[in-house]
Amino acid sequence: MIVNPAAAAGRTGRRWPAIAELARASGLDFDAVLTVRPGDATEIARKAVRESRPLVVAVGGDGTLNEVVNGFFEGARPIATSSTLGLLQIGTGGDTRRTLGIPIEIAAAIRVLTEGYPRLIDTGRATLGAQVYHFVNIAEAGIGAEVSERVNRMSKYLGRTTYLLATLSSLAGWRHKPLRVSVDGGIRREFIGQAVVVANCQYYGGGMRIAPRAAPDDGVFDVIVAGPIGKLEAILKARKLYSGTHFEDVGLRHKLELLQGARVEVSSPDVVLVQLDGEVVGQLPATFEVVPQALRFMVPKA
User: Does domain 2-121+295-299 have CATH number 3.40.50.10330?
Assistant: First the structure.
């Protein structure tokens, strides 16, 4: 169990003793390590993965999960292991768990660890200059990264409301960016707009179902090209993003495009931030590649 006590404005740390007691009462025999600084979870996970610990569990939010996911890799390559990744979601976002069907209620999530099955899923590899990162959920360049940076500077005591406030604040100061995107070297788009979203899973931004058709085991990303959506329009259409019906909206249809591919290159002449699983890692240019069937993730039985 890799526990981030600072996740969810410190709620993870406060709840951990009760969670540990519940997990042991459910029959789990485990070691627990509490992180003390950014990057800790990756180092702890990498050691456990090299040892092929049967379960390596992230206890915290999407940021904690992302760090643990990176522990399953050494540079650009997956580590040879029999370890399976598990998740007890306590953090602010909780987006990855939605696609994989992992409950937010802790007792139910613990049952997934004891009674679920290891689903083989794809991951994403992001290259920004000389740096290589891995992600399991969604990468994005544009306004979503601005929101993520703002969220990570704010108190997360308000939970999902933090994302709403950060989104409204980011929209208020947002100016559309010139973006270039290439998918699998063949499909190319140049436009001025909000973002390029590279989705392995379906949800981001605290529950927005931005990629309703994405599947984390199909070998491709769903790539959403978001054009010049107006500020007021974005606010009025927000509920469609949460429900995943934005592609059906007549007003948005000509400003959104859905592409698919295994390699996505994104660049801009402007400074455009890049986020992976809600963590800002740098700025464009960036290349995103599918790493097929790279990870076993403990999920509920069908």
Answer: yes
